[in-house]
Amino acid sequence: MNIDGLQHITFEVHDKVALITLNRPDQMNTWTPIMSRDLSDAMYECDENDDIRAVIITGAGRAFCAGADLSGGEEGFTDRVEIQRPPMWPYQIRKPVIAAINGAAVGVGITYPMLADIRIANATAKIGFAMVRRGILPELASHVTVNQVTGFSRAADLLMTGRIISGQEAADMGLISEAVDSDKLLDRAMEIAQDIATNTAPVSVAVTKALMWQNIGANIPKLMETEGKFINWLGQSTDVKVGVQAFLQKQTPQWQMSPTKDVPEDLADLLTRPAG
Fold this sequence. Notes:
Layout: E1 9-14, E2 17-22, H1 33-48, E3 54-59, E4 63-65, E5 97-101, E6 104-106, H2 108-111, E7 118-122, E8 126-128, H3 142-150, H4 152-161, E9 165-166, H5 167-173, E10 178-180, H6 185-199, H7 202-234, H8 238-249, H9 265-268
Parallel strand pairs: 2-3, 3-5, 4-6, 5-7, 6-8, 7-10
Antiparallel strand pairs: 1-2, 8-9
């Protein structure tokens, strides 16, 4: 793999620790299809390179990732780029992945770190699963990962309201491992990564990670597939246009769609309702 071909991230290795940095600081590291492909390529490299023992993912500038790049409107939810092999996600690789959330982490900016093993954040970082406020839905299997780490009630709060919380509140809820001062974040992430790289056996860690993710990970591909069907439909819907425009214009959205009338039949079967 040509790791030098990365466009929207940077990739460095220091003392057996890979440091991956989302690198669109002028755009608050908003997510693009190119960034998604770059991260997947970086995950392949981290997985296959035995000289890498741990991985840190962080953001350049004042944000970790402020969500999907909506500069082109609602198309930001459905853009794609050609990929040569299946995506590789943080939970799939044989090395521990630490998300060091240095600033705003919204939408995919937090659903992606939910696929990491350890999350730490700037105590004042703004974190939110804002998709329902844009007329879309959370992705990357966050319907199961958030539930797994916070419990159902807190996951419902975060995913169904899309409200913004601080890094400290995220730590209090168990969404992340710990919240630290911004100037200490990367040092703390590197401290954890170096401890792993120095003091743990690589095969032991790989097996432990695989077993920890075994039950959750088995459900992730199917859930991502189901999420994708809804995202592709919602990405072309009236409400996503309303939500994105309201966000861009800083207005209150005036939603137009009905859950009882507007969900297509082929997707309605994927929704579960209480029997009665």
